[in-house]
Amino acid sequence: MSDDVGGRPGAIDAVPQPNEYDQVVDPDVDLHDPGQQRETRPREWDLVLSISAGGVLGALARYGVGTAVPHRADAFPWSTVLINATGSLLIGVLMVIVLDLTSPHRLVRPFLGVGVLGGYTTYSTFAVDVQRLVLAHRPMVALAYVLTTVLTCAFAVWAAVVLTHGSARLVVGARGRRRRHSRRRR
Asked: What is the pLDDT of residues 55-74, one digit of tens each?
């Protein structure tokens, strides 16, 4: 403490409160933004368990696809493309259903999106596959793989969003037509 801090006589040095550093805070969280301050609240065990259980299921599914469609280290990794493209497609469908069409339980999105699909998709394997192809002196195959993966996954998400919204409109429209038709018959 000092009597002269920041040019103000009698000011006291800032002393952190005992509980100020008790929590781990994500460095990406802006503590001055009230909307982001929510991210610093204590973690909830049901959320962690939900994500963990989903991650196990997703990783097992990824392992199954990788085993069913194996590839050599110097060959084009179709299994990883298949995994990431189908995962991207499912993420697109899930986000439309969860965010636009329904109001599910708060653990549905973390379980399916972060857990199952996060455990299923594998961008770390994608990076390792690229490295292996380059080390095997197959840089053009590596480049083709990068472009194929990025474009396929982006298209899969876009197509999933468009088709899921379109399907929802068809279902809602069909329900409305059935209701109008049943009212006329009465």
From this structure: 999 999 999 999 999 988 88
- Two tokens at 15? 């002393």
Each residue's pLDDT tens digit, 69-89:
998 888 999 999 999 999 999
Residue among 151, 166, 147 nearest 100 (CA): 166
The angle that helices 139-185 and 78-95 make with each other, rounded to 10 degrees, is 30
Q: Write the DSSP string, 123-146.
A: HHHHHHHHHHHHHTT-HHHHHHHH
Cα–Cα distance, 123 to 51 (Å, whole number): 18
3 state SS for 48-80 = HHHHHHHHHHHHHHHHHHHHHCCCCCCCCCHHH
The single-letter DSSP state of residue 43 is: P
